[in-house]
Each structure stands twice: as structure tokens, then as C-alpha cells.
Design a protein that fits this description.
Chain C: It is found in: Cell membrane. The complex is a heterotrimer of chains A (434), B (303) and C (295). Chain A is built from 22 helices and twelve strands. With 434 residues, chain A is an alpha/beta fold. Chain A folds into two domains: 208 residues, Periplasmic binding protein-like II (D-Maltodextrin-Binding Protein, domain 2, 3-Layer(aba) Sandwich), CATH 3.40.190.10; 195 residues, 3-Layer(aba) Sandwich (D-Maltodextrin-Binding Protein, domain 2). The chains are: A alpha/beta (434), B mainly alpha (303), C mainly alpha (295).
């Protein structure tokens, strides 16, 4: 099966990234700015999203800044994100754009191993100490020790809520520190006629966030990563326990979990219809695009402790960045643009365009972060082990086709749990060697 | 008889010059070659790949797997049976509800009941719409904040589950699928009915036969060829069902169909040749109806 | 004699009542049928903010075509419509042309493999399309590399056109060959006696006779190819080359979806086939029925 180093080597490394982001490492900008030879030519860039959305506008702003700096034209196209991910292997084999926003972990490493992505180790080196050693390790493909993605941003998965809603309800989520507290919070929210724990899983991946955190809280990070890499069994009582806890949350969920996707969850929060929502913070850009007031109202706290042995020492914090296609027309240009994305100038352009992400580069002055971003860093800082999210921490032919439907089946009919877990394990066992 | 003899003469190869023979070869060769290269060859490749392990990228990585993918599907993948079940439900629904309804509608509209022209038009419209649009239209009806939820007084905070509610979503999907299928069947049948001798029907009415008797005794038997084709189309369409569900659920398997599984495994994020095996299973299921269809439409030629 | 007349009249009266009932019932059914479309149109005429502020069922404060203009501009619909045209027109013409070639040969010349050819083509039309998705992609890449231009077929209109042709030509062949069987053989005989070449026999004699089924098929296939959006997902890496039905996907999802805008987009994209259908209804219907009712 897939090599465990993938998971283990990354253990607690991104935590380092968080520290880097906090500004402990500095002075890397000198190296970054002395990139040697001049790269020319038009660069094609794929944006995952549609052209009118907030994220795409930020993408274009960064690309424009690059053009301004280098004189190289960037031709951006926006694509439906699901379609891009689903056809990724085909797109990369055909005539891909030179660079594109992408995600670290299995999705990058496996495709790099297959020769679809260009090595950007030189660019990572050029960015120098602005990238912490930990961030670099997080972006490194364990099978050859090279980087195939320029890490730019990351975000925590945590409990999101609206401060105003909680105030109206007379609740204080900051104080929830145990599982019982969480259930009480859900109970209280539900009593007021709101959704206690908002969840959508139509896309088949959204509920993986809840699974991940429950597994890490109950059984610890190591067990989680081992499970995803076949070293532990899905039939283990520990996994049953995870689902039992998920089952305990079902009464507080919206009744249409399998009807809505992540955007449906977001809308529940945006329109003040729910209490807590377990999600990655990236969606905050949409809040900001709606209005500053909505954005200021948004808050995040770590998922509470369940098992004292593990406390809140782990978190999913996916690393995003820019990758370069090997089959692009101008891979050199693509790599140069990717490097720009990771540099201070790139980040400045993104921030100026309203980006609410937190950056990996230590060149960015974190003191300028707004309150929400500082809270995100605090949430990340509370954890010492960092996962990438289930569909980046395990094989692509396992996450989507097997775990996704398994969680959906559980949400449909929790009583089938034993059967579901047996099947999940059987399907792992039947996977071909990589 | 005489015309057959004449045909022989017309067709005799003797009369063909070199040029003509070349033209004929091109006439047949070009389309056939295209058909083989872009249709049959890919199908054959898929069949072969279904016996391998591969991540779909480097040809050198292909490894022989024997029947492993099939074993995996039949014995280790519960979602396969769920998909099979949904395909069967689709088939049963189309066979016993949607198709008969389409036929009934055609029959009534053919009788030129009041308003038949406008009805006919209305039922045709969904037939010409893209599935991409049909998906959007029906989402407007069922999504949180949509029409049906609104009627029930639900906003997005307390929306009832429809697409994700496995007690009812099958019926909802069947309803939406029928929206198009019924019009299609009606269209086919109406054209057939135009050829039924009107006097037969009138005679039957004068004999005091009820509407149902007329339909059963006169219409159905005369429409036999159309009936067979409709049955086959219904079966094939049910097995090939895909677009609508893809538009609603994407490649997630909240309401799986064989075709969705093919797509999820064959083209999706975790590309594997299990997808090819799903495709072959689908093909095998389609072979029967395809042969039945061919036998019906080429009955005379096959003799 | 008279008694039959009485029975007849009585029967007719009863039938009239029944018919009214049936008509009302079908009318209700038809309303249910058309309602989702009417609802979509209604939604498209209202601004998003109205819905957000006052709910789906509120009395409209504003009704206008703003969403249509915005959708057209935002989606760059003109551009995507052109893409659709670039694919649809050549694909239909080529399909009809190739289909008529095969149909012509098998119905006018007796070769041993005539029937096998017909079977091959007709069966091809009924294959589950997913069976071929990925190999077609690989094939396109390989063929492209062979000619030193990867975009020869992949990410190119030509590639989409060719797959459409490969899939639809079976249906065209089938329909056209059954039609040609109804054309008297004498016409061919005289052509051959006049010493016409095979090509002239096809081009000057048969093709003009095929006008009705070609028109019918043309309408039908334009509609089918216009409506397809899957091939473009797999065979086009550049969004700007995809057809208008794919462009619609761009309006969906990612951002806080403006459903009213999406409704307008859907109506705009639906319009061409619906209009085509209303204008050329006869061809449309006969196209479908030619294929499936001719034995």
C-alpha cells in the first residue's frame, strides 16, 4: 500500500508552518528576490472557481501583479472546480495550462510520481527561508524528496459560528472544551429552532471533515494516519467509536444533510440558520464578499476535546498552493508565476484584493492579520499534529469511491454501521498495490 | 419477382468500373473506419483494460489483474448492488409507469380530445431540452429555498430532505426522468398511431366496444412493431441512464447508478480500472436489448 | 337500422362526457408538466435581492429582463454559442453525409457484408457512451502526438465533431437506409443504364431524393449535439472552447449562487432548441419516428 512516510513525515511539521506564519522565521526575502535568470513568455493559469466569485477575483489580481512585475502576460481561465478535479488526470495528460491552484498531499504527490507535474524545487529554494522548513516538508513528495507545489496558503478545519447568533442565544462557544459542552451547545441551539450542527454531504467529502476530527480527537493523530494508510483496520472498535460519536450529532444536524453541499452549509451560516459548522475556513472569502459585517461576525474555535489522552492536539489544516503542469506549453513561466504566488509581492496583491487566507510565507507581516485570521492562527497553534484532510491523506481511489459513500451510507442509516465498516475494510484490502 | 431480377442486374458487379469500385470502397471505408476507430476500438480497449490494474497515466504501469476488478465489484462493493438496484427500479418505473403513461397520452391526444394541440406541444418541450437545463429547472423546484420547500413553508434553515432522502428521492428522480421520457414515448407512439386505420377504430366503436377494448384489441396489435421498439428503447435508456443523476448529484454516489460508478472510477479523482469493469458489466447488460432491437428492425433483412 | 343509430348517439353522448373528463385530466397533467418551466421563467424575471428580502412567494416588487442581460454579459454567452455552432453544424453535416454514403451503398448494391455493416452501425449507436470516454481521450492524445500536434483532436473542435459523428452516424445510416428502401429501384436502374458513375448516381440521383429524411435528421441531430455537454468536459481542457451547455455549469455552484441569474441563463440556453422545435416541428417528429418506427 502507500508508504506510511507520507503521513508520518508530515506529522507535526505543518505546525511548524503555523509558527513560521506567526513570524518566528524572517529575513528570507533577500533570497527570494534574487532569482537568477529572467523567465519570459505568456503563462496560462487555471482558476478553480467561476469568474465572478471572490476567490477568482483574488487569483486574477495576483496574476495581474505578476504581469506588472515581469511583463509576462498571464492568461487566466476559470473552470468548474469539480469538473477540474474529476478530469485532472486527463487534463494534465493533454494540453494543460502552465500553472493552477492546487492542493498539497496525495493529490499532488501521486500525480507527480506519475510524471504529470513539474518539479518546482528550485523555486522553493529561491523562496528561501520565507518558507519554514516545516512548510517545505509539507509540500515535499516523500517518494523523491522534491516539491511539486509552491505552498501559499493554509486554513484550519474547525467549528465555525456567528458571534451574533451565539450572543442572541446566550451561548459562548469559546467556553466549549469537552464533548458534553458541544452536545449542550447543539441542544441549546436546536431548542431555539436553529440547526445545531450544520452539515452537508451531497458532495461526498464534506462530512470527512467531521470524521477526521472525531478520529483524531478520540484515537489520536497517529491512529488516524495509520488508518488512512492501511495500517489500522476500519473494523477496529476505535473506528466504531468515531461513528458512534458522529451518530450522536445526527439529531442536531439539519434534516437535509445529503441534499446540500458545502455551499449549502455555508448558506446556513451566512443566513444565520445554524449554530456551529465544522468546515475549513477557506469559505470566509465568500462572507467577506457578501459584506464586511458578515465577515466580522464570523468566528472559529477548535473542535473540543473528547479523549483527554489526545486533548486538542491535532487538526486538519490543508496546505494549498500553486502547481505547474509538466505538459504545459511554458513550464518555466508557470514555475516562475508559481514562485511569484509564494512571494511577498504575490501575497500583497492577494491581500489587496480582499483575500482572507493565512499565508505560509514568513515575509508576510502577520501583525496585519485581522481578528479572524489571528484566531485561525490560534486554532492552528493549539494543535501539534497537522493532517491534510481525508481526501489528501489517502489514496484517491479509496477516498472518493469508498470512504465518501461509506460516510453517506452511515448518515442515511446509522444502524448499518457494522456492515459499512466491514465493507470499507474489504474494499481497502481489494485495492491494487500502487 | 420481376423487380428482383432487375435489381440483380442493377447491382451486378460486372458493371462497375475501376473508378466506381474505388468510389464505393471510399463510400463504405471512410465512415466504417471512423466508426471503428472512434467507437469500437475504444470500447474494445475498455474491455481489455477491465482486466488490468492501472492508474490511467503511463502505459508501462499497466498490470494484469485477471478477474480481480470484477471480483472486487461483485463481492466487495456494496454500492454496486445499490446502483444495480437503482437501475432496475429505473427500468421497472419506465416499463410499467412512464412508458404506459406516454402511450396512453398518445392515444388520447390522437383522438383529438379538446386541447390536444396545446397538450401535445407541452409534453414535447422537455424532450428537446438539454439534461443540463433539466437538472437546473428541477433544482429550482426542490432545493432549499425552492418552490416545493416554499409551498411547505420551509426556508433553508428547516428545509426538508428531498434529493438526499432515500425514502423518497428515488420517486422524485423517477418523476423528473419521466418528465422527459413520457413526452418522448408519446411522440413515437403518436406517429405510429397516425398509421392505424381510422375506420377500424370507428367500426369498433360502433360495435359498442369500450374505449379500453378498442385500445387493447385494435390499437395495440396493429402497433406491434412500434411497441417492440418502445420496449427496447425503454430498457436501453434505463440502463444507460446517467446525465440527469450526474447533474443532480455529481460523481458522488448519493444515488448511485451503474453509469455514475463508471464515471466515478474511470474518469474521477482516483482513476482505476474498476471503472472499466463497471463499464463492461453495463455493456453486457445492454447486449440483450441491443440484439433484440437489431432483430426487430432488421427482421426482413435477417431472413 | 334506427336502433343502431340510437345506440350510436347514446354512446356518443356518453363518450363526450367522458372525453371532457379526460381532457380536463390531461390538462391538469399538462399544467404540472409545464409548471417547472414557467416557474423558472418567473424566477428569471425577478432580481435576486427581492427573493432574499421577501421570500420566494412574495409579490414581485420588480419584474424585468435584467437577469437576461447580466447572464449574457457575465457568461460571455455569445462566445459559447459560437462554440456550439462550430461543433454542431459540421458534426451534423458530416454525420448526414457519411450516413447517406453507407445507406446508399447498402441499399443500392448487394455486397455480402451489407447487413453486417448495418448491424455494426446501428449497434454502435446503442452502446453505453461511458464505455468509450477515456480510451477516446487517450486515442486523441496519441494521434495528436503522432502528428506532432497534441491539439489536433484533443482540446479542439475537430475532436468533438468526430466523436459526435462516430456516435450519431449509426442512427443516420439506419434511418436513411430504411428510407432508401422505399425509393423505387427503377430510378437507380435508369441512372445506371445512362452510364452514370457511382458518384453521380449518389450525388445527382439519390441525394436529392433524400431531402426529407435529411432535413428531419438534421433537425433532430442538431438538437442532440447542441444539448450534449459531456464530451466537452473530457475532451476540452480549455473552458473557452466548451459549448454553451457547459458554460451553464459555470453559473452553478461555487459562489453564493444567484438562482435568478442561473434561471435566466438556463432559459437563454434552452431557447434555441425550443424555437427550433416549434419552427421545424414536423421535421423533428418525423426524424425521431423515422428512426424508431420503420421496421
Amino acid at each position: 500500500m502507500s508508504d506510511a512516510t507520507n503521513g508520518i513525515s508530515r506529522r507535526s511539521v505543518l505546525k511548524g508552518a503555523a509558527i513560521g506564519g506567526l513570524g518566528l522565521a524572517g529575513g528570507g526575502s533577500l533570497l527570494a528576490s534574487c532569482s537568477s535568470k529572467k523567465v519570459t513568455g505568456d503563462v496560462h493559469f487555471t482558476i478553480r472557481g467561476n469568474l465572478s466569485d471572490a476567490g477568482s477575483k483574488i487569483n486574477i489580481a495576483v496574476n495581474d501583479a505578476y504581469t506588472k512585475k515581469t511583463g509576462n502576460k498571464v492568461i487566466s481561465q476559470a473552470v468548474n472546480s469539480d469538473d477540474f478535479q474529476n478530469n485532472f488526470v486527463q487534463i494534465m495528460q493533454g494540453t494543460p495550462d502552465d500553472a493552477f491552484g492546487w492542493m498539497a498531499g496525495w493529490r499532488t504527490n501521486a500525480r507527480a510520481d506519475a510524471g504529470l507535474l513539474a518539479d518546482v524545487s528550485d523555486q522553493v529554494t529561491a523562496l528561501g527561508s520565507s518558507l519554514s522548513a516545516a512548510a517545505i516538508q509539507g509540500a515535499t513528495n516523500p517518494s523523491d524528496g522534491k516539491q511539486y507545489i509552491i505552498p501559499t496558503t493554509y486554513y484550519p478545519w474547525g467549528l465555525h459560528y456567528r458571534k451574533s447568533t451565539m450572543t442572541e442565544l446566550g451561548l459562548n462557544p469559546e467556553s466549549i472544551s469537552t464533548w458534553d459542552d458541544l452536545i449542550k451547545l447543539c441542544e441549546a441551539t436546536k431548542k431555539k429552532g436553529l440547526v445545531g450542527y450544520a452539515l452537508g454531504d451531497k458532495g461526498g467529502w464534506e462530512a470527512m471533515g467531521t470524521f477526521d476530527i472525531l478520529n483524531m480527537r478520540l484515537n489520536g493523530y497517529q491512529f488516524h494516519i495509520d488508518l488512512l494508510n492501511g495500517k489500522e483496520k476500519w473494523t477496529d472498535a476505535k473506528v466504531v467509536d468515531v461513528f458512534t460519536h458522529m451518530g450522536d450529532l445526527i439529531p442536531y444536524m439539519n434534516k437535509n444533510v445529503l441534499d446540500i453541499s458545502w455551499d449549502g452549509m455555508r448558506d446556513l451560516l451566512l443566513q444565520k440558520k445554524c449554530g456551529a459548522m465544522m468546515m475549513g475556513s477557506w469559505f470566509a472569502n465568500d462572507f467577506k464578499a457578501k459584506s464586511q459585517a458578515d465577515y466580522d461576525d464570523l468566528w472559529i474555535v477548535p473542535f473540543p476535546e473528547i479523549n483527554p489522552e489526545h486533548g486538542i492536539d491535532s487538526i486538519d489544516a490543508p496546505l494549498d498552493g500553486v502547481s505547474v503542469a509538466k505538459n504545459g506549453k511554458n513550464p518555466e513561466g508557470g514555475a516562475d508565476l508559481a514562485q511569484f504566488w509564494g512571494s511577498k509581492e504575490g501575497i500583497d496583491a492577494a491581500v489587496a484584493a480582499g483575500d482572507t487566507n493565512i499565508y505560509i510565507s514568513s515575509d508576510f507581516d502577520t501583525s496585519t492579520y485581522d481578528a479572524f485570521n489571528k484566531q485561525k492562527l490560534a486554532v492552528l497553534g493549539a494543535a501539534k499534529n497537522i493532517g491534510f484532510f481525508l481526501d489528501r491523506d489517502t489514496r484517491g481511489d479509496f477516498a472518493g469511491p469508498v470512504v465518501g459513500p461509506a460516510i453517506q451510507s452511515f448518515l442515511k442509516n446509522p444502524k448499518d454501521l457494522t456492515k459499512i465498516l466491514d465493507n470499507t475494510q474489504a474494499q481497502w484490502d481489494a485495492l491494487p498495490a500502487l | 419477382m420481376k423487380s428482383t431480377a432487375a435489381n440483380k442486374k442493377v447491382r451486378s458487379r460486372r458493371s462497375l468500373s475501376r473508378n466506381d469500385r474505388f468510389t464505393l470502397a471510399a463510400f463504405i471505408g471512410i465512415p466504417t473506419l471512423m466508426q471503428i476507430i472512434f467507437l469500437w476500438l475504444p470500447a474494445l480497449i475498455t474491455i481489455l483494460l477491465s482486466f488490468t490494474y492501472w492508474n490511467g497515466i503511463n502505459v508501462g504501469d499497466i498490470k494484469w489483474a485477471g478477474l480481480a476488478n470484477y471480483k472486487n465489484i461483485f463481492f466487495g462493493t456494496p454500492v454496486f448492488y445499490e446502483a444495480l438496484k437503482n437501475n432496475v427500479v429505473w427500468l421497472l418505473w419506465f416499463s410499467f409507469i412512464a412508458t404506459p403513461l406516454g402511450i396512453l397520452l398518445a392515444y388520447q391526444i390522437d383522438r383529438k380530445i379538446k386541447g390536444h394541440k396545446i397538450y401535445e406541444t407541452i409534453f414535447y418541450i422537455p424532450v428537446v431540452l438539454s439534461l443540463a437545463i433539466i437538472g437546473i429547472i428541477w433544482n429550482f423546484m426542490f432545493q432549499p429555498g425552492g418552490f416545493v420547500q416554499g409551498i411547505m413553508g420551509r426556508d433553508i434553515g428547516n428545509a426538508v430532505s428531498i434529493w438526499g432522502n432515500y425514502h423518497i428521492n428515488t420517486y422524485v428522480i423517477m418523476g423528473v426522468a419521466s418528465w422527459r421520457h413520457i413526452g418522448y414515448i408519446m411522440l413515437l407512439y403518436l406517429a405510429g398511431l397516425k398509421s392505424v386505420d381510422l375506420s377500424l377504430r370507428e367500426a369498433s366503436a360502433i360495435d359498442g366496444a369500450t374505449e379500453w377494448q378498442t385500445f387493447r384489441k385494435i390499437i395495440l396489435p396493429t402497433m406491434r412493431p412500434v411497441n417492440i421498439i418502445i420496449v427496447v428503447i425503454t430498457i436501453i435508456e434505463s440502463l444507460r441512464a446517467f446525465d440527469l443523476v450526474y447533474i443532480i448529484y455529481g460523481t458522488s454516489t448519493a444515488w448511485p447508478l451503474l453509469n455514475i460508478l463508471v464515471f466515478q472510477n474511470f474518469a474521477g479523482q482516483g482513476i482505476s480500472m474498476k471503472g472499466a469493469a463497471y463499464a463492461v458489466i453495463l455493456l453486457i447488460l445492454c447486449v440483450g436489448p441491443i440484439l433484440a432491437y437489431l432483430r426487430t428492425v432488421f427482421k426482413e433483412d435477417l431472413k | 337500422m334506427t336502433s343502431t343509430m340510437v345506440v350510436d348517439a347514446k354512446y356518443r353522448d356518453k363518450q363526450k362526457v367522458k372525453d371532457r373528463f379526460i381532457s380536463a385530466f390531461i390538462g391538469f397533467f399538462a399544467f404540472v408538466w409545464i409548471f417547472p418551466i414557467l416557474w423558472t421563467i418567473w424566477t428569471s424575471l425577478r432580481p435576486y435581492n427581492d427573493i432574499i428580502s421577501y421570500g420566494v412567494f412574495s409579490w414581485p416588487k420588480h419584474l424585468n429582463l435584467d437577469n437576461y442581460f447580466t447572464a449574457f454579459k457575465k457568461m460571455g454567452l455569445t462566445h459559447y454559442f459560437l462554440n456550439t455552432l462550430y461543433v454542431t453544424i459540421p458534426a451534423v453535416v458530416l454525420t448526414l453525409f457519411l450516413g447517406s454514403l453507407i445507406a446508399f451503398v447498402v441499399s443500392r448494391y448487394s455486397f455480402r457484408f451489407n447487413l453486417s455493416l448495418l448491424l455494426l452501425f446501428t449497434a454502435g449507436n446503442m452502446l453505453p457512451i461511458v464505455l468509450t470516454y477515456i480510451p477516446v481521450f487517450w486515442l486523441y492524445i496519441k494521434i495528436g502526438d503522432l502528428f506532432g500536434n497534441r491539439s489536433l483532436l484533443y482540446n479542439n473542435y475537430l475532436g468533438i465533431i468526430l466523436v459526435h459523428v462516430a456516435f450519431q452516424v449509426g442512427f443516420a445510416t439506419f434511418v436513411l437506409s430504411s428510407y432508401m428502401k422505399t425509393v423505387p429501384k427503377e430510378i437507380s436502374e435508369s441512372a445506371i443504364i445512362d452510364g452514370a458513375s457511382v458518384f453521380r448516381h449518389y450525388w445527382n440521383v439519390m441525394l436529392p431524393l433524400l431531402r426529407p429524411p435529411l432535413a428531419a435528421l438534421g433537425v433532430l441531430m442538431s438538437c442532440w449535439i447542441y444539448n450534449d455537454f459531456f464530451w466537452a468536459l473530457i475532451l476540452m481542457s480549455q473552458d473557452s472552447k466548451r459549448p454553451v451547455t457547459s458554460a451553464l455549469r459555470q453559473l452553478q455552484g461555487e459562489y453564493i449562487t444567484d438562482f435568478n441569474l442561473l434561471a435566466a441563463g438556463a432559459i437563454i440556453v434552452a431557447a434555441p432548441t425550443v424555437i427550433l422545435f416549434f419552427v421545424l416541428r414536423k421535421q423533428f417528429v418525423s426524424g425521431l419516428t423515422l428512426g424508431s418506427t420503420k421496421g
